[in-house]
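Input record (one chain):
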Amino acid sequence: MLSALSDLLWSKVLIALLVGIGIWFTFATRFVQFRYFGKMFGILTANHHEADGRHLSSFQALILSVAGRVGGGNIAGVAVAITLGGPGAIFWMWVVGLMGMATSFIECTLAQVYKTAEPDGAYRGGPAHYIERGLGSNWKWLAVLYSILLLVTFGIGFIALQSYAVATSLQDAFSIPQYYSGIGLALVVGLIIFGGVKRIARVAEVLVPIMAGGYLLIAIVVLGLNITEIPATLKLIVESAFGIGPVVGGGIGAAILMGVKRGLFSNEAGLGSAPNVAAVAYVPHPANQGVVQSFSVFIDTIILCTCTALIILMGTAYDPSLTDSSQGVALTQASLATHIGEWGRVFVSIAMLLFGFSTVLYNYYLGENSVSYLTTGRSNEFVMNGFRVVVICLCCLGAIMDLGTVFGFADLTMGLLALVNLIALALLFKTGKRVLGDYDRQLKSGNKVPTFQAEEFADLNLDAESWPVTDNSRKKP
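The corresponding structure, as predicted from the sequence alone:
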């Protein structure tokens, strides 16, 4: 039943919505992801420190979202997409990624607009907040539904799956029993998550550049060793996407399905998960964080997923006649080993450990955000600590569980999560476009650092502490 419902949702409804809304947002925003592509790199040279002692900087929010987007989907997910959908699935991952950059811009901009300030001054936000504040109290039921789905999918299901992926990878490379890996992961995660989002961000700020940079470096080495094969491999991906040449995998339909499904799983654009992190940042204008989070999608799908795909397709371990989805990490490990020797297996295992670890922290924060929203106005510290204990237990148990049913259930809830968020984005798009228009006008007038004037958006039910009204006029440099 889980499989049938998931297939219906993914093979028909979500493909149309994800691609359709991505195209709609791309054209309606005048290709915002390409117009401001240069600005996306500006964040890498900006001040990386917190704006003050209470908030995260835009860079820290970017790194935290990359920590979540960059994970097993970039290593195992790409391998599964190629195995079941053929090389053409990668083309459709690119399409979802490029269109998803516009979707991510809108959802993360809205998260900033409708964020709320906590008693300690820190921010919280995300789809639940922009659904309730943006659509009105009559839609609170949808916000609650989204929070429950987010908690079940990321806060529970995906944490167990990431623990299993890390444990099996370490067992394959180093023969470490899975339950040892689970216990070790649980201990380290426990020490971090009780420190709150700022501690998670500090860990991610160090870990993510190392892990993503290291994986990119080894991919560049592989590409350099096979540079003459790159054009033919890219041609294979494009031709397979449209059924040109021999049928590989499950044909065009499977290529589109797996490309969209694994693409969303990897970059999460339109899923509503990244806005929970985007809302935490301190920025002068909501569109700033929209631009930054678009860059996060580009890093994940266009750069890192493509690197994994080329490693697999230019290696000798990939067999198009095999359609066993259980290959996953093992296929990527074997493919890298064909390029650089057996230590490639060890490298992939270490990468999976780091990617999986950072993703567990990210998933925990999404679950924490859901718990916070669902217990708003109540004394929720006891509930929050209970959730943290559950996460630690999941790290232990997930390493040794049979996760077939868990994966099927999480696949379904992730689809429902995307469906709820995409409906909300469609209804709130006018607001997102209005905020983008304000950002465009300020830049066009010569203001290099656009600022959000709350009094000009008084009709949007903004949180007064997050966006205080000021009488100061905009200052041009």
